[in-house]
Amino acid sequence: MSLRGRLATALALFLAVVGLALWVVFGFITPTTPTTDFTSAQPAGSPVNLTIQAVGAIGFGPHPTWVSYLVKTPAGKWIQSTIWKLPAHTKVNLTIMQYDSGSPLRNQIWGQVAGTQGGTELLNGKPISFYNSYGGNGVGHTFAVPAIGLVVPLVGVPSSAPNICGTAPCTPNYAHNVIKVSFTTPSAGSYSWQCFVPCGLGTLYGNGGPMGALGYMGGFLDVTA
Ligand SMILES: [Cu+2]
Fold it and tell me: How far is the CA of 105 from the centre of ligand 1 (A)?
């Protein structure tokens, strides 16, 4: 091969390596999560049934040990997606399958249910408006949409339970709590939701890792007119 040919090959290889490195780095710092569309899952105006689960460890992907939320698609498949497309001004019947254990809250305000229909959540069928995280099993996560004042504390399963789910998606034969609330979507816009319990174990004050990553402890309600 001529010198020129060898130089061109070396340059091409160098650029390929640089490109690959950039792709990996940017893929890591700008995580994305697929959007799940619920706008055509039901006739216009009918309530949307949204079912999600919170797990102690996702079990797959780049961060298998991270806590995470998953969503059940309208087709019934559990996927790791935290951006959900919802119709505006529509009632959402939200069911949360909580498979993670809990602990006392650092700030008791997150034990207060807010922004739901009736100001309550159904915890395994029983309505509660507040959960004292110093008693019982504590709170593992919250599902909160600050812009609409929605806060749903997710009471933990007993950490001593013999059947704690290890790998998502979890199925109901593992220890879990079923939490149900209803709320109404606001007008069109993008509304962030997140967990306010510092559950990013091993990170600074528990607020790193999954707490700041789309697809794990936070996402968006993509509300469309
Ligand atoms: Cu959390």
Answer: 11
Q: Poorest-confidence range of 116-120, 186-190, 204-208?
A: 204-208
pTM of the model: 0.86
Give the Å distance between the CA of 67 and the centre of ligand 1: 7
Q: Are residues 137 and 185 in the same domain?
A: yes
Residue 114: burial class (beta carbons within 10 Å; 0-12, 13-18, 19+): middle
Do 25 and 119 fall within a single domain? Answer: no
Distance from the alpha carbon of residue 5 to the mean position of ligand 1, in angstroms: 55
Cα separation, 133 vs 106, in Å, equals: 9
Contact 168, 178 (CB under 8 A): no
Q: Which domain holds residue 7?
A: 1-30
**What residues have their beta carbon closer than 5 A to ion ligand 1?**
141, 195, 197, 199, 217
Here the CATH number for the domain that contains residue 185 is 2.60.40.420
